[in-house]
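Entry 14. Ran structure prediction on the chain below.
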Amino acid sequence: MKRLRLAGAGTALALFVAMSGLQLALAQPAPLSGEAWSLADEAYKAYDARDFARAADKAREAVALRPDLAQLRRLLINTLAAQGDISGALAAAEQAVADSVSDAELLSLRDSLKQQSAARPATSAPDAGYLAADAGYRAYARRDYAAAIANARKALGHDPSRENYHSLLVDALRGAGRAAEAERAASAALARFPSSPVLHLQRGYLRQRLKLNDGAIADFTVALRSSQLTPAQRRSARLSLVDALLAARRPQQALAALGPLGRGYEPSIRRGFALQALDRQDDALAAFDEAAAQAGNRSQRSTAERGAISALAALNRMQEARVRFNTAYGAGLLQGMSALDTAYLANQVGEYAISYAFLQRADAQGQLGGNGLLDAAYAARRAFDNTAAESYFRRAIDLHHEGALPLDPQRLFEIRRDVANLTRTWGATASVIHGAVGVMPGVPLTVPSGAQTWQAGAEIYWRPPNIGFRDGATFELFTRAFQTLADQTGGPTGASTTQGSAGARWKPFANVNLVLEIGRLFRIGQASREDWQARVGYSVGEGGDLRFDVDHWRYWQIYGEASRFLESGQTLASAEARFGHAFRVGGQPNLVFTPFVSAGAAYDSTLATPEAFGIGAGANLRLWFREDRYTAPMSYFDLTVQYRARVAGDRRAQGAFAVISLNY
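Output, C-alpha cells:
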C-alpha cells in the first residue's frame, strides 16, 4: 500500500538523538491492519487513479474503523481537497484536531485549508492569482508537486501580498523533497511577513529536517510568542522546540522548555532523554518508566523501554538492563529500531552476540560507516570472528585515508595494533643474555648456575586457528632451544649445554596479562636435562608500546613468574619492577630509548641461599619494524642493559645484566 504525502506547513518529525546509541523516534500510530488497512489501500488506489469520490468514501470508512490514526485523517482531508471540497476538507481537519488526532503535518494542512478558504474572492469573477493558487492546492493534494510549485509561483506573480500563496510554495517545495529551497522560500516570505507564526513554524520544521537546529530553535521560539496559535499548534511547536534543543545538545534548555507541557507520554519521553544527556540517570529512568506507563501504542512503549534499558546500563545495573532488554526483544518491542540502534543497545547490556548479529545486518543494509565500522570490528573480535574483524578494521582505515573518518595519529596506531594482534599466527625470538641464571624474569633456564653467564637461544611459536587469538586471550604452541656460551664458575658451556623444550602456553583473560605454561624439557646436549616444567607469569605496566600523541611518555612495568620442575622438584621464581620514561630518539617514530630504575628479586630452591634481592638502574633501546598501511609494527630489535646492587640474600642479585633480542 502506498503512503500519500499530504499537504501542510510542517512535517511529522523523526528526531534522531545520539544518546547512548539510541534513536528517539517521535510517537507513531499503532500499525494499520485488518479491515481498516484494506479500506485505506482501496482509498489510496482510488486516489492514484484520480477517482477522488471513491477515495473519499473508502477513507471515511477507514476512519470510522480507526479514528485514532492521523494518517487516515489526512487521507480523508486530502481526497476531499482534491475533489475541490475545501469546506469539507477543512471540516474534517477541524474534527481531527477536536478529536486530538493530529500531528504537525495535519495542523499545517488545516492552516493551509483555512488560508485557501479565506483566499476565495467575494466577487463572482475570481482573479488570476486566486485561480493559480487554487490550481496549486489541487495539484499539491494529488502530489503533483511540480505543478503545485509552478502554480504557487504564478499566484505570487499576480499577488505577492498574499501570505497563503507563499505558504503554498513552501509546502510544495518541501513536498518535492527540495527542503533547502523550501527553507529559502520561507525566509523570503518572512522578510515580507516577519510576525507570521505559520511561516516561522514552516521554516522551523524545514530547518529541523536540514539539521539547522539553532535556526529551528529560533523559529519555534518566535512562533510560541504569538497569540495566534491554537492550543494544539502551541503544543506541537513546543514539542518541536524541545526536539531541536535535544538535537542541538542543549538538554538543560530542553528541560526548561518542557515545563509548560506537564505530564503525558510526549513530555515524559523527552524529559527522559534530556535527563539522560545530563547524566541524571536515576531521574531519566523514572521519566522513561512514566512514559512507558502512559504509552498509547506499541511504538511509544518501545521508545520508552529503550530509554529505560539504556539508563539501567548507565547506572551499571546490568542484570536488570539485560533482563529488560531480553524481555523487550522477545516481545518484539524493539522491532521498530534500526539494525544499528538495536546493535548498540544490545552492546550496552552485554548481549554481544545479538549486537554483532545486528551490526552485520546493518552492514548488509548499508548503515555502517565511519565509527560504525570500528564498532563492528570490535564486536566481531568479541565474537571471535577474526577474519571479519580484520576486514572491518581495514575498511575503517581506508575511510580514514579517504578523508571520511577523522582519526588522530594515536587512534589510528591503536587500530593498526589491533589488526597486528588479530593477524599474528606465529612468531619467533632470538636472544643473547648476560646475567645470573634465574635472576632476570623471562630468561629460559639452561644449566643451573648462581653465577654470571652468557646464554643464547631462540624460540618459535604458533597460534592455532580459531583458538590462537580470542579477543585478547591467546593460546600458543612453542619450541625453543638455549645454550650457555660462558659460565663464570667454569661450568659446562657450548653444545653440551643445549637445552630443548616444547610445550604450550595460554593467556586465558583478554585484559589480564596472566600466562600459564607447561613444557617438556628434552636433552640435546649432554649437560642438559629431561624434565617437565610448569610456569606461570604475570605482568602489568604502561608505556611499553609506541605512542604517536606525544614524543615522550611515562613507562613502568611489574613482572613476576614462578616455575616448578616436576621431576627434579626444583622451584624458581623471579620478579622485577621498572619505573622510567620513554623518549622517541632523533625524530625517528619507531626508535625509543627508555632509561629506568629497577628492583628485582629471585628464588632458587636448589641453592644454599635461595633468595636474592637487588636494586639498580638501566636503559632500553627498542627499534620497531615490519609494518604497513593497516598493521602496526609487528617486530622489534631490543637492547637492555642494567646494573644492580645487592640488597639482601645471595650475591647473584648483584652485577651487570644485559639482553639483546630480536622479536619477530
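The longest helix spans residues 231-247. Will compare against last week's run tomorrow.
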